[in-house]
Write a structure and sequence with these properties.
single chain, 305 residues, alpha/beta, five-stranded mixed sheet, three-stranded antiparallel sheet, 12 helices, elongated
Length: 305
Protein backbone atom coordinates (compact mmCIF):
# COMPACT_ATOMS: atom_id res chain seq x y z
CA UNK A 1 0.00 0.00 0.00
CA UNK A 2 1.08 3.58 -0.55
CA UNK A 3 2.81 5.79 1.98
CA UNK A 4 0.58 7.80 4.31
CA UNK A 5 -1.96 5.06 4.91
CA UNK A 6 -2.76 4.06 8.46
CA UNK A 7 -5.15 1.47 9.85
CA UNK A 8 -7.95 3.98 10.34
CA UNK A 9 -7.80 4.98 6.67
CA UNK A 10 -7.89 1.33 5.65
CA UNK A 11 -10.98 0.86 7.79
CA UNK A 12 -12.61 3.76 5.92
CA UNK A 13 -11.63 2.17 2.60
CA UNK A 14 -13.15 -1.16 3.69
CA UNK A 15 -16.36 0.50 4.87
CA UNK A 16 -16.67 2.38 1.56
CA UNK A 17 -16.29 -0.88 -0.35
CA UNK A 18 -18.88 -2.60 1.82
CA UNK A 19 -21.52 0.15 1.83
CA UNK A 20 -20.95 1.86 -1.52
CA UNK A 21 -21.48 5.33 -0.06
CA UNK A 22 -19.81 7.93 2.11
CA UNK A 23 -22.90 8.21 4.29
CA UNK A 24 -23.12 4.45 4.76
CA UNK A 25 -19.43 4.22 5.62
CA UNK A 26 -19.78 7.07 8.13
CA UNK A 27 -22.69 5.32 9.85
CA UNK A 28 -20.81 2.02 9.99
CA UNK A 29 -17.69 3.62 11.44
CA UNK A 30 -19.65 6.01 13.68
CA UNK A 31 -17.98 9.02 12.09
CA UNK A 32 -19.48 12.22 10.74
CA UNK A 33 -20.10 12.40 7.01
CA UNK A 34 -17.65 15.32 6.57
CA UNK A 35 -14.93 13.36 8.40
CA UNK A 36 -15.50 10.37 6.14
CA UNK A 37 -15.38 12.60 3.05
CA UNK A 38 -12.05 14.00 4.23
CA UNK A 39 -10.78 10.45 4.77
CA UNK A 40 -11.82 9.54 1.22
CA UNK A 41 -9.85 12.55 -0.06
CA UNK A 42 -6.79 11.33 1.86
CA UNK A 43 -7.26 7.84 0.44
CA UNK A 44 -7.37 9.25 -3.07
CA UNK A 45 -4.13 11.18 -2.52
CA UNK A 46 -2.35 8.28 -0.88
CA UNK A 47 -3.46 5.63 -3.36
CA UNK A 48 -3.30 7.79 -6.46
CA UNK A 49 -6.77 6.67 -7.50
CA UNK A 50 -10.31 8.02 -7.31
CA UNK A 51 -11.42 4.94 -5.26
CA UNK A 52 -15.14 5.76 -5.69
CA UNK A 53 -16.64 7.49 -8.73
CA UNK A 54 -20.12 8.82 -9.45
CA UNK A 55 -22.53 6.53 -11.30
CA UNK A 56 -26.01 7.98 -11.57
CA UNK A 57 -27.09 8.95 -8.05
CA UNK A 58 -24.64 6.64 -6.34
CA UNK A 59 -20.95 5.76 -6.17
CA UNK A 60 -19.16 2.72 -7.56
CA UNK A 61 -15.61 1.53 -6.86
CA UNK A 62 -12.92 1.93 -9.49
CA UNK A 63 -11.21 -1.17 -10.90
CA UNK A 64 -8.21 -0.41 -8.71
CA UNK A 65 -10.38 -0.25 -5.59
CA UNK A 66 -12.13 -3.50 -6.49
CA UNK A 67 -8.78 -5.21 -6.88
CA UNK A 68 -7.47 -3.81 -3.59
CA UNK A 69 -10.57 -4.56 -1.51
CA UNK A 70 -9.61 -8.13 -0.62
CA UNK A 71 -6.06 -7.14 0.31
CA UNK A 72 -7.30 -4.34 2.55
CA UNK A 73 -9.76 -6.66 4.28
CA UNK A 74 -6.96 -9.16 4.99
CA UNK A 75 -4.74 -6.39 6.40
CA UNK A 76 -7.52 -5.32 8.76
CA UNK A 77 -8.11 -8.92 9.84
CA UNK A 78 -4.37 -9.47 10.40
CA UNK A 79 -4.19 -6.29 12.46
CA UNK A 80 -7.12 -7.46 14.55
CA UNK A 81 -5.42 -10.77 15.28
CA UNK A 82 -2.28 -8.92 16.37
CA UNK A 83 -4.35 -6.83 18.74
CA UNK A 84 -3.39 -3.49 17.16
CA UNK A 85 -6.96 -2.81 16.04
CA UNK A 86 -8.34 -2.39 19.53
CA UNK A 87 -9.49 -6.01 19.70
CA UNK A 88 -9.98 -7.27 23.22
CA UNK A 89 -11.81 -10.10 24.86
CA UNK A 90 -15.00 -8.11 25.50
CA UNK A 91 -17.48 -8.43 22.58
CA UNK A 92 -19.04 -5.11 23.58
CA UNK A 93 -15.80 -3.36 22.52
CA UNK A 94 -15.56 -4.88 19.05
CA UNK A 95 -16.13 -2.83 15.91
CA UNK A 96 -16.36 -5.20 12.96
CA UNK A 97 -18.43 -5.87 9.87
CA UNK A 98 -18.78 -9.45 8.67
CA UNK A 99 -20.04 -10.84 5.40
CA UNK A 100 -21.77 -14.20 5.68
CA UNK A 101 -22.79 -16.20 2.62
CA UNK A 102 -25.86 -18.21 3.49
CA UNK A 103 -28.38 -20.48 1.82
CA UNK A 104 -31.66 -18.59 1.55
CA UNK A 105 -33.59 -21.36 3.35
CA UNK A 106 -31.48 -20.68 6.46
CA UNK A 107 -31.94 -16.90 6.54
CA UNK A 108 -35.28 -16.84 8.41
CA UNK A 109 -34.20 -19.74 10.62
CA UNK A 110 -30.81 -18.50 11.83
CA UNK A 111 -30.55 -14.74 11.39
CA UNK A 112 -33.07 -13.60 14.07
CA UNK A 113 -31.10 -15.31 16.85
CA UNK A 114 -27.75 -14.17 15.43
CA UNK A 115 -28.90 -10.54 15.24
CA UNK A 116 -30.36 -10.73 18.75
CA UNK A 117 -26.95 -11.89 20.01
CA UNK A 118 -25.13 -9.03 18.30
CA UNK A 119 -27.55 -6.46 19.72
CA UNK A 120 -27.23 -7.84 23.24
CA UNK A 121 -23.54 -8.73 23.36
CA UNK A 122 -21.65 -7.03 20.53
CA UNK A 123 -23.52 -3.95 19.28
CA UNK A 124 -20.49 -2.80 17.30
CA UNK A 125 -20.67 -5.86 15.06
CA UNK A 126 -22.62 -5.66 11.82
CA UNK A 127 -23.43 -8.69 9.69
CA UNK A 128 -24.16 -8.56 5.99
CA UNK A 129 -25.84 -11.72 4.74
CA UNK A 130 -25.34 -12.40 1.04
CA UNK A 131 -26.90 -15.00 -1.21
CA UNK A 132 -25.15 -18.06 -2.50
CA UNK A 133 -23.79 -17.90 -6.01
CA UNK A 134 -20.72 -19.89 -6.89
CA UNK A 135 -20.07 -21.91 -3.76
CA UNK A 136 -16.32 -22.22 -4.28
CA UNK A 137 -13.72 -21.29 -1.69
CA UNK A 138 -12.13 -18.33 -3.45
CA UNK A 139 -14.45 -15.83 -1.78
CA UNK A 140 -13.31 -17.15 1.62
CA UNK A 141 -9.68 -16.93 0.58
CA UNK A 142 -9.77 -13.41 -0.81
CA UNK A 143 -11.85 -12.00 2.07
CA UNK A 144 -14.97 -11.28 0.03
CA UNK A 145 -16.88 -13.34 2.58
CA UNK A 146 -15.89 -14.29 6.11
CA UNK A 147 -18.15 -17.28 6.82
CA UNK A 148 -20.07 -19.62 4.54
CA UNK A 149 -23.22 -21.30 5.88
CA UNK A 150 -24.90 -24.01 3.87
CA UNK A 151 -24.52 -27.41 2.30
CA UNK A 152 -20.87 -27.90 1.61
CA UNK A 153 -17.97 -30.21 2.18
CA UNK A 154 -14.47 -30.11 3.60
CA UNK A 155 -12.89 -29.24 0.28
CA UNK A 156 -9.42 -27.77 0.91
CA UNK A 157 -6.75 -27.81 3.65
CA UNK A 158 -6.87 -24.02 4.12
CA UNK A 159 -10.67 -23.99 4.53
CA UNK A 160 -11.97 -25.03 7.93
CA UNK A 161 -15.41 -26.60 8.10
CA UNK A 162 -17.73 -27.74 10.85
CA UNK A 163 -21.05 -29.52 10.43
CA UNK A 164 -23.74 -27.83 12.52
CA UNK A 165 -26.87 -29.83 11.66
CA UNK A 166 -28.45 -32.35 9.32
CA UNK A 167 -31.65 -31.46 7.50
CA UNK A 168 -34.14 -33.36 5.37
CA UNK A 169 -36.55 -32.18 2.72
CA UNK A 170 -40.24 -32.36 3.53
CA UNK A 171 -43.42 -31.75 1.55
CA UNK A 172 -45.08 -28.44 2.43
CA UNK A 173 -48.77 -27.81 1.67
CA UNK A 174 -51.44 -25.31 2.64
CA UNK A 175 -52.86 -26.16 6.07
CA UNK A 176 -56.44 -25.78 4.85
CA UNK A 177 -55.96 -28.03 1.81
CA UNK A 178 -56.92 -31.69 1.62
CA UNK A 179 -53.32 -32.78 2.20
CA UNK A 180 -52.97 -30.18 4.94
CA UNK A 181 -55.75 -31.96 6.84
CA UNK A 182 -54.41 -35.45 6.10
CA UNK A 183 -52.47 -37.56 8.60
CA UNK A 184 -49.62 -38.13 6.19
CA UNK A 185 -48.47 -38.16 2.58
CA UNK A 186 -48.52 -41.20 0.29
CA UNK A 187 -46.58 -41.78 -2.91
CA UNK A 188 -49.86 -41.45 -4.81
CA UNK A 189 -50.35 -38.02 -3.21
CA UNK A 190 -46.80 -37.05 -4.08
CA UNK A 191 -47.35 -37.94 -7.73
CA UNK A 192 -50.91 -36.65 -8.09
CA UNK A 193 -50.46 -32.94 -7.36
CA UNK A 194 -48.17 -30.48 -9.19
CA UNK A 195 -44.96 -29.45 -7.46
CA UNK A 196 -43.19 -26.11 -7.12
CA UNK A 197 -39.40 -26.41 -7.27
CA UNK A 198 -37.18 -23.94 -5.40
CA UNK A 199 -34.00 -23.55 -7.44
CA UNK A 200 -32.02 -20.42 -8.17
CA UNK A 201 -30.77 -22.19 -11.31
CA UNK A 202 -34.28 -23.04 -12.43
CA UNK A 203 -33.90 -26.79 -12.08
CA UNK A 204 -36.98 -28.96 -12.34
CA UNK A 205 -35.43 -32.27 -11.33
CA UNK A 206 -33.63 -33.42 -8.20
CA UNK A 207 -33.27 -36.22 -5.63
CA UNK A 208 -37.05 -36.68 -5.29
CA UNK A 209 -37.27 -37.52 -8.99
CA UNK A 210 -34.43 -40.02 -8.67
CA UNK A 211 -36.17 -41.71 -5.73
CA UNK A 212 -39.47 -41.88 -7.63
CA UNK A 213 -37.77 -43.15 -10.78
CA UNK A 214 -36.35 -46.08 -8.81
CA UNK A 215 -39.96 -46.99 -7.94
CA UNK A 216 -41.22 -46.57 -11.50
CA UNK A 217 -43.10 -43.38 -10.59
CA UNK A 218 -42.76 -39.72 -11.48
CA UNK A 219 -44.06 -36.33 -10.38
CA UNK A 220 -44.97 -33.21 -12.33
CA UNK A 221 -43.10 -30.01 -11.52
CA UNK A 222 -45.31 -27.15 -12.64
CA UNK A 223 -42.89 -24.30 -11.95
CA UNK A 224 -39.45 -23.45 -10.63
CA UNK A 225 -38.89 -20.30 -8.55
CA UNK A 226 -35.53 -18.79 -7.56
CA UNK A 227 -35.78 -18.90 -3.77
CA UNK A 228 -37.05 -21.03 -0.90
CA UNK A 229 -39.08 -18.18 0.56
CA UNK A 230 -40.86 -17.59 -2.75
CA UNK A 231 -41.65 -21.30 -2.92
CA UNK A 232 -42.99 -21.21 0.65
CA UNK A 233 -45.37 -18.40 -0.31
CA UNK A 234 -46.67 -20.46 -3.21
CA UNK A 235 -47.30 -23.35 -0.82
CA UNK A 236 -50.14 -21.27 0.60
CA UNK A 237 -52.09 -22.05 -2.57
CA UNK A 238 -54.35 -25.12 -2.57
CA UNK A 239 -53.48 -28.27 -4.48
CA UNK A 240 -49.72 -27.83 -4.83
CA UNK A 241 -46.81 -29.50 -3.08
CA UNK A 242 -43.64 -27.57 -2.31
CA UNK A 243 -40.60 -29.59 -1.20
CA UNK A 244 -38.60 -27.50 1.28
CA UNK A 245 -35.86 -28.10 3.86
CA UNK A 246 -37.39 -29.31 7.09
CA UNK A 247 -35.76 -26.60 9.22
CA UNK A 248 -37.38 -23.88 7.14
CA UNK A 249 -40.76 -25.64 7.02
CA UNK A 250 -40.82 -26.12 10.78
CA UNK A 251 -39.81 -22.49 11.37
CA UNK A 252 -42.54 -21.11 9.10
CA UNK A 253 -45.21 -23.23 10.78
CA UNK A 254 -43.98 -22.19 14.24
CA UNK A 255 -44.34 -18.53 13.21
CA UNK A 256 -47.99 -19.02 12.36
CA UNK A 257 -47.95 -19.40 8.60
CA UNK A 258 -50.97 -21.53 7.59
CA UNK A 259 -48.82 -24.37 6.28
CA UNK A 260 -48.39 -28.04 7.10
CA UNK A 261 -45.42 -30.25 6.38
CA UNK A 262 -45.30 -34.01 5.85
CA UNK A 263 -42.37 -36.38 5.72
CA UNK A 264 -41.65 -37.48 2.17
CA UNK A 265 -42.85 -41.02 1.41
CA UNK A 266 -39.64 -41.74 -0.54
CA UNK A 267 -36.07 -41.93 0.71
CA UNK A 268 -34.18 -38.74 -0.12
CA UNK A 269 -30.62 -38.22 1.17
CA UNK A 270 -30.27 -35.76 4.07
CA UNK A 271 -28.42 -32.48 3.68
CA UNK A 272 -25.53 -31.67 6.00
CA UNK A 273 -25.28 -27.97 6.86
CA UNK A 274 -21.84 -26.68 7.72
CA UNK A 275 -19.91 -23.56 8.63
CA UNK A 276 -16.83 -22.84 6.52
CA UNK A 277 -14.12 -20.21 7.03
CA UNK A 278 -10.53 -19.59 5.98
CA UNK A 279 -7.76 -20.68 8.29
CA UNK A 280 -6.47 -17.11 8.74
CA UNK A 281 -9.67 -16.35 10.71
CA UNK A 282 -9.57 -19.50 12.82
CA UNK A 283 -8.15 -17.80 15.92
CA UNK A 284 -9.76 -14.41 15.36
CA UNK A 285 -11.91 -13.75 18.44
CA UNK A 286 -14.81 -11.86 16.82
CA UNK A 287 -15.05 -14.37 13.98
CA UNK A 288 -14.98 -17.29 16.40
CA UNK A 289 -17.68 -15.56 18.47
CA UNK A 290 -19.90 -15.11 15.41
CA UNK A 291 -19.41 -18.74 14.36
CA UNK A 292 -20.47 -19.80 17.84
CA UNK A 293 -23.60 -17.63 17.71
CA UNK A 294 -24.54 -19.13 14.34
CA UNK A 295 -24.14 -22.64 15.78
CA UNK A 296 -26.30 -21.69 18.78
CA UNK A 297 -29.02 -20.37 16.45
CA UNK A 298 -29.63 -23.83 14.96
CA UNK A 299 -32.92 -25.22 16.32
CA UNK A 300 -32.42 -28.08 18.75
CA UNK A 301 -35.48 -29.99 17.52
CA UNK A 302 -35.17 -30.37 13.74
CA UNK A 303 -37.70 -32.53 11.89
CA UNK A 304 -37.45 -36.25 12.55
CA UNK A 305 -35.45 -38.29 10.05
Amino acid sequence: MADGLDLNLLRVFDALMQTGSVTGAAERLRLSTPATSRALARLRRSMGDEIMVRAGRGLVPTPFAQGAAGKVRRLIEDAAQLGVDGQGSDPASWQRMFTVRINDSLVPVLTPAVLASTRAEAPGISVRFVAEGTENSEALRDGTIDIDVGAGGHDAPDIHAQDICRDRYVAVVAAASRLGRADGLTIDDLCALPHISASRRGRFRGPIDEALHALGRHRRVAAAVPSMTAAAALALEDDVIVPLPGLLARHLVSKGMPLRWHALPVLVPPVDISLRWHQRLDADRPTAWLRDRIRRAVPTDPPEE
